Amino acid sequence: MRSDAVNGSGEDEGRAAPSRRKDARRNKATLLDAAAAVFVTSGVEAPVRDIAARAGVGVGTIYRHFPNRADLIIAVYRHQVDACAEAGPALLASAATPHAALRQWIDLFVDFLVTKHGLAAALHSDDAGFDALHAYFIDRLVPVCAELLTASADAGEIDSVIEAYELMRGVGNLCIGADHDPRYDARRLVGLLVTGLRRPR
């Protein structure tokens, strides 16, 4: 009986462990979403207490996950890249057409570029770290954009005349300065670019 009790306890703990890990990932994602939102409104030098308040946790929880600000900035950047990457397949599965999915994904990409407010500048203080993040950005997002372009071309909606990296670089260039110039609407210009990819009917 004692052996059964021990085994039963071990099984319970085994089942609980994945649940705890899932909760930990969800809690960390909540912190990163809160930090990203605060960075958008207040910049990457925003007080940690503001991030903690938005996430509904204590300041100590932030520091337990991210011992210094650079750790937090890097984690937010990677988290936002991951969210953008994961949106591509989901949009392709749910949008009316592949081109509609491409347009919606490019809108998300523009939001990421325009609202990251100082993330890239902050990371320039550590060239090696920034280089690693830039590589992560390219490795995660270019294949997603390529998948959307290929699906649009296969559906006969666009011609295969542009590479994913080329399109993303063009979109990035159109977004330069959009975060501090109220007279410039990067989203409208990018929308015209994506519309221009469509084959004439």
From TrEMBL:
Keyword Zinc assigned: no
Signal sequence extent: none
Region spans: Disordered: 1-25
Transmembrane segments: none
InterPro entries: Homeodomain-like_sf (IPR009057), HTH-type_TetR-like_transc_reg (IPR050109), HTH_TetR (IPR001647), Tet_transcr_reg_TetR-rel_C_sf (IPR036271), TetR_SbtR-like_C (IPR049445)
DNA-binding region: 47-66
Domain of life: Bacteria
Keyword list, A-Z: DNA-binding, Transcription, Transcription regulation
Entries under Pfam families matching the protein: TetR_C_43 (PF21597), TetR_N (PF00440)
Domain HTH tetR-type: 25-84
Keyword Nucleotide-binding in annotation: no
PANTHER family hit by this protein: HTH-TYPE TRANSCRIPTIONAL REGULATOR BETI, HTH-TYPE TRANSCRIPTIONAL REGULATOR RUTR
Protein name, as recorded: TetR/AcrR family transcriptional regulator
Species of provenance: Streptomyces koelreuteriae
Phylogenetic lineage: Bacteria, Bacillati, Actinomycetota, Actinomycetes, Kitasatosporales
